[in-house]
Design a protein that fits this description.
Two copies of one chain form a homodimer.
Chain A lengths: L14 H8 L3 H8 L7 H14 L5 H8 L4 E6 L4 H17 L3 E6 L2 H14 L4 E4 L7 H10 L3 E4 L9 E4 L2 H14 L5 E5 L5 H16 L9 E3 L4 H12 L7 E4 L2 H13 L9 E6 L2 H5 L5 E4 L2 H20 L8 E3 L3 E3 L13
Parallel strand pairs in A: 1-2, 1-3, 3-4, 4-5, 5-11, 6-7, 6-8, 8-9, 9-10
Antiparallel strand pairs in A: 10-12
Helix pairs in contact in A: 1-2, 1-3, 2-3, 5-13, 6-7, 8-9, 10-11
Chain B binds a DNA duplex (16 and 16 nucleotides) through helix 2 and helix 4.
Keywords (chains A, B): DNA-binding, Transcription, Transcription regulation
GO molecular function, one term (chains A, B): DNA-binding transcription factor activity
InterPro entries (chains A, B): HTH_LacI, LacI/GalR-like_sensor, Lambda_DNA-bd_dom_sf, Peripla_BP_I
Chain lengths: 352, 352
DNA sequence: CTGAAAGCGCTTACAG
DNA sequence: CTGAAAGCGCTTACAG
């Protein structure tokens, strides 16, 4: 019944089993599964078939031990929305377990606390670090890391820096696209709730909104722009102020989902149905967006993919760093997308 | 400057470096870091000091390769709340990356779809599987796994089964404790929103609530008990029905946080301040609880710890299974705790 | 209480 | 295009 048994039981298919099955060396099998060039097509096919038949899949531990590209990476974050962070973490964890990287997670209170956290990581033997927003936009944190000669990559950076590697979306374009969509739905007076002032993305998102409004020849009512802090509560309060004015916007664009959810709650409290009486849209497409009701129309930012990619980028950079390859910053810009759910409605183009 | 360089660069402290530093064999160092008994206290101390000094920490890949206890485990889930799932995943991912386990994640539509997903896992070489609720309570799914002779452990099982390993909290007690707390705050007419009918925990939580009410000599108004489905929307609707009646409860206990958040929104819509006019409490303490405003008083279930523990239990079980050790189910019951935030208020004990 | 040998499953670097 | 050898960092099993 049992196939093969390891030193202490268990039956696992190894690269040797496949090699024997095909009648080649383990080396050749290794080449095939790693997609290397120098293998005869016929041999490749036979190996593939065998891999399939024996249901072989490589032992990640052995691989990362052999390749030596197992690294220890640190993740530094500071007070983001829980929903954002957990999606972020999911991406990081799943990629780092795939790549056999060891993870060290630290939080800090803004850029000021970063030094201590970073020292700690260095001491713990981290080979590089991932920065979550808004830390990724801090020139101060970047400087510290550069002085330490520590490879790092920023996620969701809004301020492009030719010297740092990052993976982002184009916040300006994304905010613009959502704004245009709202205009298309007939909205003319659109309120905007800004994100935390220390997050650079907040500024860019507002700029994208403002630019799209201007391009459409629409005015932004200063009373319909409010400062938020990325929290539900701040979105709630901001919307309450905005909606208690004599003239109300017909739509509110919040810079993240938590604030949008807060805005919806506030509208409900004031007896305004969403989306019948007010359209509310968010940004990020975190769990919050699809957990509340009505579910939120929002800009999808593929947070967990971006986080995963940042791990791969960092690992690459660490490899380069170790082998003395000169550093070259990469900027990966992912696509955003507009997700239309139930919190937005067409109010008919009342126009020229 | 550089300490030691591996085959392709990088400077990592290995067990050999520590051994050399102390003047013992790598074996001895290994014993110390694994906390084995047979080491002279003096030797142990020296090794520890050296580990500290050189900032050594073991290479997980090498360890799991050597111990052979690297396994492939599957995680099967079906339609839970996103907030719950993401905390669950966090625990699973972080523990499995620690233990060097490979993870395969599949979802299915209820117990019916489980067979296919499980076959797939088996084919992919999974050595065992983790079941999230409500799948963990399905006798049908348990049966399939047992027939496959596949080790598995259930998380958050409400229905104790002497033949299956699991990690849970005592839902009955937890619901009872929250209920007593509400009574202590002066509430007499407490509404209850049940969870999804196919989740066994829903029933148990209600039972715990009912038992505590009865023990306190309080009646449950049948109009103040509503069926929910663990979603925000269902909590919103249930609360709306409950709060539109002539007699309203002064508190609502929802079986999870998403529904509690929905209930708060519904109360707001009806012009009822929370917690001034209505206390609302939830269950689980997921991200939702602390994301909304007012933040939710809730029963904390350490989901991510529980999920992590389930991985360790499963790995243990797989090891036993491999070595032919007879199966013995373990039931780990973790502590819950009451988290009091801003959605609950003391309305004064109106009574003897 | 301590150590020398062998092996975990894979890959790199070197030959052919 | 393919393979034999050696090594990644750790632990098990066996001696002493």
């Amino acid at each position: 019944m049992a196939r093969k048994v390891g030193r202490r039981g268990g039956n696992i298919v190894t690269i040797h089993d496949v090699a024997r099955h095909v009648g080649v060396s383990p080396m050749t099998v290794s080449r095939v599964i790693n997609g290397e060039k120098n293998v005869r097509e016929e041999t490749r096919a036979k190996v593939m078939a065998s891999v399939e038949a024996l249901n072989y899949s490589p032992n990640l531990a052995a691989r990362s031990l052999a390749t030596q590209d197992s690294a220890r990476i640190g993740l530094l974050y500071s007070n983001p929305s829980v929903a954002f962070l957990s999606e972020f973490l999911l991406g990081i964890l799943s990629e780092s377990s795939q790549s056999g990287a060891q993870l060290l997670i630290e939080s800090c209170e803004g850029p000021e606390g970063a030094t201590a956290a970073l020292e700690k990581m260095k001491a713990a033997g981290c080979d590089g670090v991932i920065l979550s927003p808004p830390l990724s936009d801090s020139t101060r944190v970047a400087k510290i890391l550069q002085d330490m000669k520590m490879p790092f990559v920023g996620v969701a950076m809004a301020r492009p820096d030719p010297n740092v590697s990052c993976v982002t979306i184009d916040d300006f374009k994304a905010a613009g696209a959502m704004t245009r969509r709202l205009i298309e739905l007939g909205h003319r007076d659109i309120g905007f709730i800004k994100g935390h002032p220390n997050a650079y993305a907040s500024q860019i998102r507002y700029d994208g909104f403002a630019a799209a409004m201007e391009k459409a020849g629409l005015k932004i009512d200063p009373g319909h722009v409010a400062q938020g802090y990325f929290t539900y509560r701040s979105g709630f309060d901001a919307a309450e102020r905005m909606l208690s004015q004599k003239v109300r916007p017909t739509a509110i664009f919040a810079s993240n989902d938590d604030m949008a959810a807060g805005a919806v709650a506030s509208a409900h409290r004031l007896g305004l149905e969403v989306p019948e009486k007010l359209t509310v849209v968010g940004f990020d497409d975190t769990a919050m967006a699809s957990s509340v009701w009505p579910e939120l129309t929002t800009v999808r930012q593929p947070i967990s993919d971006m986080a995963g990619l940042s791990v791969r980028l960092l690992l690459d950079q660490i490899k380069g760093h170790r082998s003395g390859r000169p550093f070259e910053a990469v900027r990966e810009v992912r696509d955003f997308s507009l997700i239309e759910r139930q919190s937005s409605a067409d109010i008919g183009s009342a126009s020229s």
